[in-house]
Amino acid sequence: GPRIVAVINQKGGVGKTTSAVNLGAALADAGLRVLMIDLDPQAHMSLHLGVDSTSLQHTVYDLLVDETCTTTEAIVRVDDNLDAIAAETDLAAAESELASNPNRNELLRTRLECVFNRYDVIVIDCPPSLGVLTINALSMATEVFVPMQAHFLALQGVGKLLETIGMVCSSVNPTLQVTGIILCMHERQTMLAREVVSDLEGFIESSRDQAVPWRNCRVLHPPIRRNIKLAEAPSFGQTIFQYEPTCHGANDYRALAADVMAGWLTA
Amino acid sequence: GPRIVAVINQKGGVGKTTSAVNLGAALADAGLRVLMIDLDPQAHMSLHLGVDSTSLQHTVYDLLVDETCTTTEAIVRVDDNLDAIAAETDLAAAESELASNPNRNELLRTRLECVFNRYDVIVIDCPPSLGVLTINALSMATEVFVPMQAHFLALQGVGKLLETIGMVCSSVNPTLQVTGIILCMHERQTMLAREVVSDLEGFIESSRDQAVPWRNCRVLHPPIRRNIKLAEAPSFGQTIFQYEPTCHGANDYRALAADVMAGWLTA
Ligand SMILES: Nc1ncnc2c1ncn2[C@@H]1O[C@H](COP(=O)(O)OP(=O)(O)OP(=O)(O)O)[C@@H](O)[C@H]1O
Ligand SMILES: Nc1ncnc2c1ncn2[C@@H]1O[C@H](COP(=O)(O)OP(=O)(O)OP(=O)(O)O)[C@@H](O)[C@H]1O
Ligand SMILES: [Mg+2]
Ligand SMILES: [Mg+2]
């Protein structure tokens, strides 16, 4: 089946959407058939891709709560090799609306299985929380990428995130792995960034022989440099490759995609 | 009574804690008696101030759920003119634990009223959500400052934030005003920043004659430039003035404090 990448970090504003969109777009550019799933009620991935979810009949929300909505109806074409399922603000109600559904943690996987054979990669952009939406992503995913900024306060939340992933892993998705950390908005030359990256790598190293989902995790390369073009692109509803294909931001995400593909080929 | 500033934005990672800490510290440096309240289960303000909340007997959590905990017991001295009430991870349970308490939205104000006469300013650092903790801050505050980054996606959440503030205002705190927007991690020269600031100012201008809590809002000056020192300081448990008092970050927050004080004197 397809590689299913859940892009997760409960901390806000760390680069999840920017990474999910541009990594997915880079993989599509490289020739892989990619499906993007916006699982965030903020609908930033949908905005970023130029999808006006308010004008759509069917979004990921309908897919989760309405059995008559077919998966194909919810899929829109964004570009060559690049499809998407959009989100819209109604999705904020999903947490409470699904609370009484015993299958609520696996709805997304159940609804998406019928289109698995159409894609090489599925990328899921998650909200900054560890609620039912993120759990749905975790139960469907083959792997987790964690975007984060190499800052002191960013390190504080990683423990809690991994704990949650560990729990979902053992309960519903035993083969799930946290395979990559994406360093976003990276300021390479600073002492702080170097210390945080060193802390991260030390932690990863110490987990190599343990039966934990992050035993094969690595810091992906290159780190994504801060580049205003990456913040401008969403305001035009474009990926960085559509907006400014030769800027640092595009180069960094293209190189990151190559690193990801190499990792898949040597795993 | 004291000016009570709630630092609020449901979007994550926008500069709430960095601004609450350094603005509060700058006001204390200027001679005002300041109390900092950490209302975030992430406890980043407490970390930033060098307060080890795990070693404390009494935090803001105890103040909210335990009537036998006195307010004075929860207050720790950080520096001259600078006290704090810390948070710790137990606070994450407050949302559900307080759900059945009919006074849950006003607990903080009720518990803090007895120490109002000790302070000129109280600064409340809020979590990235609009739940019971943030509502407690809103019902106690005299004004709201909204830190944000001048990015496209950041604009998307402002409407929802103001809507919530409007609701709390009319229901529990009619004199509450949104008086300031703090531009954080600002890249002044970029077209994107200029466009976003212009959008913000246009929106504020159009609300001048309406009976809304942001009718007297303004963009505070100066914007806070991106400065790695501001991200390093919390890793040492220090405010920027303790860590690197002559850097751009310190200068910007000192100037911001002057702007805030001038606004208070001319209001
Ligand atoms: N490398 C970068 N350079 C400059 N700006 C960036 C970069 N990466 C992300 N941004 C900007 O930073 C902000 C936060 O990024 P993004 O929205 O991707 O984070 P997020 O983790 O998805 O946030 P949320 O938790 O709200 O979903 C956005 O305005 C985005 O445009
Ligand atoms: N002007 C700045 N220059 C450089 N780094 C900054 C600046 N302001 C904040 N930061 C860093 O950006 C990150 C996010 O800032 P901060 O923690 O203050 O945001 P927040 O809104 O409180 O986040 P949360 O929603 O998680 O509470 C932190 O690592 C902080 O150290
Ligand atoms: Mg996002
Ligand atoms: Mg904070």
Overview of this protein structure:
The first copy, chain A, is an alpha/beta fold. The first copy, chain A, has helices spanning 16-29, 44-48, 60-65, 71-74, 94-97, 107-112, 132-140, 152-172, 191-206, 228-232, 240-243, 248-266, and strands at 3-7, 34-38, 75-79, 82-85, 121-125, 143-148, 177-183, 218-219. The first copy, chain A, has an eight-stranded mixed β-sheet, with helices on both faces. In chain A, helix 1 crosses helix 12. The radius of gyration of chain A is 17 Å and the shape is globular. Chain A starts with a strand and ends with a helix. The model of chain A has no long low-confidence stretch (mean pLDDT 95). At the A-B interface, helix 2, helix 8, helix 9 and helix 10 of A face helix 2, helix 8, helix 9 and helix 10 of B. The structure holds adenosine-5'-triphosphate (2 copies) and magnesium ion (2 copies). One adenosine-5'-triphosphate sits between chains B (12-18, 40, 42, 44, 128, 184-185, 224, 226-228, 230-231, 234, 249) and A (11-12, 151, 153-154). One adenosine-5'-triphosphate sits between chains A (12-18, 40, 42, 44, 128, 184-185, 224, 226-228, 230-231, 234) and B (11-12, 151, 153-154).
